[in-house]
Amino acid sequence: GTGATITHDTTDRNASMAFSSTTAGGFTIMQTYEHFRYQPGKAQQIFITFNFEGQDANADKFAEYGDQTNAFGVEYKADGTLNFYIKTGTTQGDQIIPSTQWTNQGDLGLLDFTKEQIFFIQFEALYVGSVSFGFQIGTERTVFHTINNSNNSTAPYIQTANLPIAVGMVAQG
Prior knowledge:
0% helix, 12 strands, 173 residues, mainly beta, four-stranded antiparallel β-sheet, six-stranded antiparallel β-sheet
């Protein structure tokens, strides 16, 4: 978007995103070219590495397995709110779970979003299964929240599980 840059760091082998004069609503995003194909009848696990570089009062930051219509992800909002989410085009509607409602709040103090993270999503794409969100802390994978979609909705929780991985940010002014 306007005023946004993505710079490749050859020493640390990463890409850094920044806004310079971006107006509210402007964005920058890096996304895989290929979609990762869900294998019917199997659960799927997605790992995404990123560094939000802390909270930014001028930008919402996100890491997701998804696109504009369907996604599983984590977001760190400009107001300091940390959420897991499922975006969907189905009649079930989006699900946003703030960290204050995560089932495992005891380990929240171990997360430092000024450092690199390994975020993971585990899901059953039977379109009514459970979705778990977590982070790797040291050598342990820690689930912070699970959404159980089975037997509690009249519509699938997502339209497709064949999605790309994306990391980005949206300017808030």
